[in-house]
Specification:
single chain; about 375 residues; alpha+beta; Phosphorylase Kinase, domain 1; Transferase(Phosphotransferase), domain 1; two-stranded antiparallel sheet; 14 helices; elongated
């Protein structure tokens, strides 16, 4: 929970923890209450900032088994180290009160963001939820499932960072515990429950991936695939639809979505886990690829003659002189031959001979000298 959501979710009336010290934390205000726990804003004097404190309900905590499970699960979750999983700083019990301390964010939840932003384009939805998909994959590799994934359990900062929070079922949880958690989760938010959870299969990694698909569907269409109207009967109807019904085609709710994106969302919501994407990262990669496929193909390039530059067009439009083509040699006109008289011809021959004689005499003189 966040400071921004405090007044909207806190119930009316005095709270016995507000103003008190719990361990080293000074409780300041209630941020939100759930079925079995309350989240407070509290000052931590050691790190000098406000943190979120999740306190197990004192009535529930009277059961030592429940209290012990809360502390064990919180301690296990504190081992998760990922930049997009909200870190747990401390897990403790004081005077029978079990609690954990975690980072407090300042940007609201994904639920409040979607309510304000409305339908997101595929690119923005991918950028927003890709870190969550990667964080889920990391948790699954460590043997954890979230088991309580929904938009209200994805927190934001004012800088746009997103964090997973409120994991409720470690991978080592017993089948009985997982089934019980599933029932509570289904009643609280039937829109965000997988078919296998409805069948009583417990919280498993495939269930997290199904709900990630539900959240993407909601981000791209403005509504989850199956919606409740606030009554128990509606909740039961939704659980039945999760098991048996196909969701509306996404592009009937948002005509701007292309067929590839719509097909990707429907595969993420397949009833059988084996037909879905194997990881959150695979789903987000497929969605990004589908967005690319849905981009209309560019208009084919025009013929070269139609794409001349303005200069070339002007040049081509300008009148041109006819090209000069050389005629074949046999076809060329030869100049007329002028015939000399015989005496002139003899005179020329004599002069040539005289010049040759004089040249010979000159060469001889040069050799003597």
């Amino acid at each position: 929970m966040t400071m921004q959501d405090a007044r909207s979710v806190a119930t009316e009336g005095d709270d016995s923890f507000i103003g008190r010290r719990l361990g080293r934390y000074q409780i300041e205000t209630a941020l939100g209450r759930g079925k079995d726990a309350t989240v407070y804003a509290a000052h931590d004097p050691i790190i000098g900032c406000t943190v979120a404190i999740k306190v197990l309900d004192p009535v529930v905590a009277r059961d030592p088994e429940v209290r012990g499970r809360f502390l064990r699960e919180a301690a296990a979750l504190a081992q998760l180290r990922h930049p997009h999983i909200l870190p747990i700083y401390d897990v403790a019990e004081r005077d029978g009160v079990a609690y954990l301390a975690r980072q407090l964010t300042d940007g609201g939840t994904l639920r409040s963001y979607l309510a304000e932003a409305g339908v997101l384009p595929p690119g923005e939805a991918c950028a927003l939820l890709r870190p969550i998909a990667v964080a889920l994959d990391y948790a699954h590799r460590q043997g954890f499932v979230h088991g309580n994934l929904r938009p209200s359990n994805i927190l934001r900062t004012t800088e746009g960072q997103v964090f997973l929070t409120d994991f409720i079922v470690p991978g080592e949880a017993t089948p009985t515990t997982s089934a019980a958690t599933t029932v509570v989760s289904a009643i609280a938010a039937p829109e965000y429950v997988s078919p296998e959870q409805v069948r009583g299969g417990g919280a498993v990694a495939s269930a997290d991936l199904y709900v990630l698909g539900v959240i993407l569907y909601e981000a791209l269409t403005g509504r989850p695939p199956f919606r409740a109207e606030g009554t128990d009967e509606s909740a039961r109807n939704i659980l039945t639809q999760q098991l048996q019904s196909m969701p509306p085609a996404p592009n009937t709710l948002n005509p701007a979505l292309g067929p590839a994106v719509a097909g990707t969302l429907l595969r993420a919501l397949a009833k059988r886990p084996a037909e879905r994407y194997p990881t959150g990262s695979a789903l987000l990669f497929a969605l990004g690829d589908a967005e690319t496929q849905d981009i209309p193909a560019e208009v084919a390039s025009p013929p070269m003659s139609a794409s001349l530059s303005h200069h070339e067009a002007q040049r081509d439009a300008a009148p041109r002189a006819s090209p000069i083509v050389a005629a074949p040699l046999a076809e060329r006109a030869m100049p007329p031959v002028v015939a000399l008289p015989l005496y002139a011809q003899r005179l020329i021959v004599g002069l040539v001979g005289l010049v040759a004689l004089l040249a010979g005499i000159l060469v001889g003189l040069l050799l003597v000298i």
